[in-house]
Design a protein that fits this description.
Helices cover 41% and strands 16% of the residues. By secondary structure, it is α+β, with helices and mostly antiparallel strands. The chain has a domain of 38 residues. Strands 3-2-5-6 form a 4-stranded antiparallel beta sheet. Strands 1-4 form a two-stranded antiparallel sheet.
Length: 162
């Protein structure tokens, strides 16, 4: 796979494009009971998690770098429960400063996770043009449905797979 890295702005763009794409799928399949995740290396996080939560819960999403290590160490410094507004603001500023230099792995995949398994619907989705069929296993033994990679959705022309 290509080493495609995204900055935080490109990650936000990819998330927005993936959510728009998911809206098309939900329109086409109104009975679909699923949500989007970002997955890589067998781990996943909700696509709509805050950047802070994504980073804390899913460090594999960040490309290895000095900034990644700094961020992970910074996140270990928890604010006391009774933090003042000034302490919270200082923490947020430090977080934003570090986050702006992070890079994210564009090879991470945007996939569906089902609330209810409707195998007939899953098999229809496997063959749908709105799904990235090269990344979606084309077998009745799999329930994995991939819409594309973050790098795909970060492209300015992202809107459909293919």
């Amino acid at each position: 796979m290509n080493d495609q890295r995204l900055n935080p702005g490109q990650l936000q763009q990819a998330v927005a494009a993936a959510n728009r794409h998911f809206s098309l799928i939900r329109k086409k399949y109104p009975h679909l009971r699923a949500y989007l995740v970002i997955s890589l290396l067998g781990d996943q996080t909700s696509i709509n998690s805050s950047l802070e939560r994504m980073i804390a819960e899913y460090p594999a999403l960040m490309a290895d770098s000095r900034t990644k290590n700094l961020m992970l160490n910074f996140l270990k410094e928890l604010l006391p429960e009774k933090s003042t507004e000034a302490q919270k603001k200082t923490w947020k500023v430090r977080f934003q400063r570090l986050a702006q230099d992070l890079e994210f792995d564009g090879n991470a995949q945007v996939a569906l996770v089902f609330h209810e398994l409707d195998y007939n619907l899953i098999w229809k989705l496997q063959a749908d043009e709105l799904v990235e069929r090269q990344l979606t296993p084309q077998t009745k033994a799999s329930i994995r449905i991939v819409l594309g990679t973050l790098a795909h959705f970060a492209r300015p022309d992202a809107g459909s797979c293919g």
